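This is your field. Pick holes in the following sequence-structure pair:
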Amino acid sequence: MDSALSVVVLAVGFIVLVWTFVWVARLMALLDDVTAGSAKTASTGESASDGTRRVKGRGYGANYGIVLGLVGCALFFMWPSPLLLALAAVGMFHSARAVFRGLYYFGVVVWRALIGVAFNGGLPIMLYLHTTGQWSPPFLDVGLGLT
């Protein structure tokens, strides 16, 4: 009897979840329809007095890359694991994509993305040096402090 009741509760929960997704999708579509008129004016940009145009754009992941690089480097000093390479790979993807898009589309260097490339590129080097015994950094033990 308990398993039948749990299946019913699980089914009702799943239906509520799917309905929530449908409801949010409808709201987002409604919001897109409302802002479609103002999007045409935003895409043309606003002209400044010196002749430059300010165009509203989207982010390219430079902040994601730098945050993932900082988190990975900080975690290295608490838990030097090869699993941190996955974190570095994702951070390097976001940072490298931001550098490429900044240079290709806008012709500018995205400095935050370059800092993210440095942090995400440094993490595998730190792991390699630690694994081969060439570098013995201080590690933060949660109960004892630096060891």
Remarks:
- The two ends are 55 Å apart (CA to CA).
